[in-house]
Write a structure and sequence with these properties.
Elements (H helix, E strand, L loop, with lengths): L2 H23 L17 H7 L3 E6 L6 H6 L2 E4 L5 H4 L10 H12 L3 E8 L12 H15 L5 E6 L36 H15 L5 E6 L14 H14 L8 E4 L2 E2 L11 H9 L4 E9 L12 H13 L4 E6 L17 E4 L2 E4 L1 H12 L56 E9 L3 E10 L5 E2 L2 E5 L5 E6 L1 E6 L2 E6 L5 E2 L4 E9 L8 E5 L2 E2 L1 E2 L1
Parallel strand pairs: 1-2, 1-9, 2-3, 3-4, 4-5, 5-6, 6-8, 7-8, 8-9, 12-23
Antiparallel strand pairs: 10-11, 12-13, 13-20, 14-19, 15-18, 15-21, 16-20, 17-18, 21-22
The structure holds ligand G3I.
Length: 529
């Protein structure tokens, strides 16, 4: 087979896989294939095979052929911001650079994320506008590019910094009114620019038969917790907004962007519960994107991996593990061309179209190639196969025939493997929950603090309250009364000495969501931190 025909065979395989997988994940269906342009061993192709896009933010000056070869999605870094394209009264102007990016994306079969319509910053002539003018702009922006834009960030960065869980207090929030002074702007009688902007966008999409999906985008909403383990109030506030406006009767919001600018800020670190938070939003039915990913290469003591490449790997894995996480976009190509060049947070070094892959690139590519878990979310809390990959630690009955040996004077079994399970490695459990009215999600990390690797584990605990687990991920969780048993998934069965394994679950409760008690790992009591 010639090199050329071999290459076209790879392409067509990717086209079939990517389209099917994206449809299955609920992602926007893309005209032909978002993977067609990206060829060979690229982030875009690997992501497509896993049913997601892998994109980049760029300006026209960065559009070498490299971009279309490596990525399957494009976000204009600055060219669609109102500062650039908003004219008087919400009209559209000066779209030359944005058009260049859209045309490049079309020619390279990349999908486009429009960024961004309603934002307190870089608002240009929209700064201080009333809702009517915002609505004009929303309509004009949507109709200008129509279905050439797959996802639009309708509202960007509406929530305050410092984990307050509140709206920003400047425009456009100055349009809001809290009718009953209950502290939120989600009541029907409230005025809420988020609701009204999405309402307008939805109406334009529907009345013009557009397929464009409508997203809300923000930073520091990635984890369920922040540094120190406290609740991520900003993430919770975003959850409330998305929950309200993605569900009936509104159905305005299709997708949420976790910007994912990870750095040493206490609210911007990578936490082990990133996946659980992605999953929580996904269970609302919206797509989740890591929409502006970059990771400081020196996260001092706040990283969950061992250096930047491992942090990238874990972040990509968190997305892959959740079917509704349908895309990742890195915020720039190379470190030197990044808005945060001093953090060296991207996947390439070099510049001007000549780029060198970093270890982080290889880590991301390899993780994407592993794809999604085959059984990421057992929705049935009583799975039919409770058998861990290595049954030894949970099996108290030695298979060694020694007990029938007619020389019982020797108490020592010849096979040392099935020793008393209470001899298993020491363990420490980190348990973090995120609780709302009658439900919660929990992220559990098991640390093997002993000297012996664990291959196959069963973590058991009891509830002091009436908690009932409804779904789980990265472990098979069964419950009998107040007793719970979590068994490893295939990919996290092994825990090296000093290593960790994580899983999560969702549950319901009434009264108080008390913390689990009496954790045991393979029969051995664990400490809780
Ligand atoms: O183009 C001018 C140039 O002519 C001038 O000489 C130079 C002098 O400072 O400025 C240039 O404009 C800069 C522009 O980026 C283009 O490089 C602006 O000063 C600078 O403020 C602007 O920064 C952008 C920033 O948003 C503004 O908030 C970054 O490129 C862009 O990456 C960044 O993107 C945001 C997302 O939209 C939202 N999420 C956070 C993300 C990072 O802040």
């Amino acid at each position: 087979m010639s090199r050329r025909s071999n290459r076209s065979r790879i392409r067509s395989t990717v086209i079939v896989l990517s389209t099917a997988a994206l449809v299955a994940a609920g992602a926007a269906t893309v005209s032909t294939s978002i993977a067609e342009a990206a060829t060979g061993d690229s982030l875009g192709v690997a992501a497509s095979k896993a049913g997601m896009f892998f994109g980049v933010a760029a300006s026209p000056g960065r559009l070498s052929s490299f971009v279309g070869q490596e990525f399957t999605q494009l976000t204009p870094e600055n060219e669609m911001k109102p500062e650039t394209i908003a004219g008087s009264g919400g009209s559209i102007q000066n779209t030359g650079n944005a058009d260049t990016l859209v045309n490049y994306a079309q020619n390279n079969n990349m999908i486009v994320r429009g960024h961004t319509m309603v934002w307190y910053s870089q608002a240009g002539s929209l700064q201080g506008a009333n809702q009517s003018t915002l609505n004009n702009f929303i309509k004009n922006a949507l109709l200008k590019w129509g279905n050439k834009i797959t996802y639009w960030d309708v509202v960007n960065e509406s929530l305050d910094d410092n984990n307050s869980g509140k709206r920003r207090n400047q425009w456009p929030h100055t349009l809001d009114k809290d009718s009953n002074n209950d502290g939120d702007f989600l009541d029907d009688a409230d005025t809420d620019y988020i609701r009204d902007s999405f309402k307008q966008a939805r109406q334009v999409v529907q009345s013009n038969n557009l397929k464009t999906k409508l997203c809300i985008n923000d930073y520091d909403i990635e984890g369920l917790t922040v540094k120190g383990g406290g609740k991520n109030n900003k993430a919770d506030a975003m959850y409330d907004i998305v929950k309200k406006y993605s569900q009936a009767p509104y159905k305005y919001i299709d997708c949420v962007g976790f910007q994912s600018h990870f750095n040493d800020n206490p609210n911007s670190i990578i936490t082990n519960d990133l996946e659980a938070n992605i999953r929580r939003f996904g269970e609302l039915g919206v797509e989740v994107h890591l929409s502006e990913l970059d990771i400081d290469d020196d996260l001092s003591n706040n990283d969950i991996g061992t250096g930047q490449a491992d942090n990238y790997r874990k972040v990509v894995r968190a997305c892959l593990n959740v079917p509704k996480c349908t895309g990742i976009t890195v915020w720039g190509i190379s470190d030197s061309e990044s808005w945060r060049s001093s953090e060296r947070g991207l996947l390439f070094t070099g510049g001007n179209g000549s780029y060198q892959k970093k270890a982080a690139y290889t880590a991301v590519l390899n993780e994407l190639k592993k794809g999604r878990p085959t059984d990421p979310t057992p929705t049935d809390p009583t799975p039919t196969d409770p058998t861990p990959t290595d049954p030894t630690p949970t099996d108290p009955t030695p298979t060694d025939p020694t007990p029938t040996d007619p020389t019982p004077t020797d108490p020592t079994p010849t096979d040392p493997t099935p020793t008393d399970p209470t001899d298993e490695a020491a363990c420490r459990i980190s348990y973090t929950d995120n609780t709302w009215n009658s439900g919660f999600t929990a992220a559990v990390t098991i640390s093997n603090t002993g000297d012996t690797p664990v291959s196959g584990w069963t973590l058991a605990w009891t509830w002091p309250g009436n908690q009932k687990i409804t779904s789980s991920w990265n472990a098979t969780v069964t419950q009998s009364g107040s007793a719970v048993t979590a068994r490893n998934a295939g990919h996290n069965a092994a825990i090296t000495a000093g290593g960790t394994a994580s899983f999560g679950f969702q549950g319901s409760y009434s009264g108080t969501n008390t913390t689990p008690e009496n954790f045991t790992l393979n029969g051995s009591a664990c400490t809780v931190s």
